[in-house]
Specification:
Elements: E1 10-11, H1 19-30, E2 35-43, E3 49-52, E4 56-58, E5 66-68, E6 81-82, E7 86-94, E8 97-104, H2 111-118, E9 144-152, E10 159-163, H3 168-177
Parallel strand pairs: 1-9
Antiparallel strand pairs: 2-8, 2-9, 3-7, 4-5, 4-6, 7-8, 9-10
């Protein structure tokens, strides 16, 4: 596996069959050359577009979780913190929920989930980061789908984009909300 998705996230994952391809693709991920696009349904109405660039660290109170470093005066990345940048664009809004297209410039564990929660817009169904909010659609997981990955083919160098459609249960949620897909 070249990369992974958080448990409960659907969509595209990338695997390599040969060691050289694996190393090439991992290097593309490390250098930020892989374009990752997600769809996320969050609580509340977000801005039409924006970004979150808080560094992330392990939550000292709960090792299962990550934490955004949001305190004033933050500057240099300290040991055990990772730089992270998440961009989002509002696709639609209905009945208190926003559908976002999200792109990560980095790839830190739980990055999208933590960044959006830190802005007051946690993912629908995210039991780890949405506080005491219910799972209003009974998904049993967060509404997050890795929609596409774009990278250079390790052998030919040509641009490749792999896409994954929204799974049926997530489509049904959007239909219920009357959100366009």
């Amino acid at each position: 596996m070249v990369h992974r998705l958080d448990e409960g996230t659907s969509g595209v994952v990338l695997a390599a069959k040969e060691r050289d391809s694996f190393e090439n693709l991992r290097d593309q991920f490390r250098r930020g050359l892989v374009k990752k696009k997600y769809w996320a349904l969050v609580w509340g109405k977000t801005k039409s577009e924006g970004f979150v660039d808080y560094p992330l660290m392990h939550d000292p109170g709960d090792r299962r979780k990550m934490k955004a470093v949001v305190e004033e005066g933050r500057g240099k990345i300290r040991a055990r913190e990772w730089k992270a940048l998440t961009r989002f664009r509002l696709l639609d809004f209905s009945r208190g929920f926003s559908l976002l297209e999200v792109q990560m410039e980095s790839g830190v564990t739980h990055q999208i989930r933590v960044h959006l929660a830190s802005t007051g817009h946690p993912l629908v169904g995210d039991s780890l980061y949405s506080g005491d909010r219910p799972d209003p659609f009974g998904l049993g997981r967060q509404f997050l789908n890795a929609l596409s990955l774009g990278f250079r083919h390790p052998s030919s160098g040509r641009e490749v984009v792999i896409e994954s459609p929204l799974p049926g249960e997530l489509k049904l949620v959007l239909e219920d909300l009357g959100i366009r897909q």
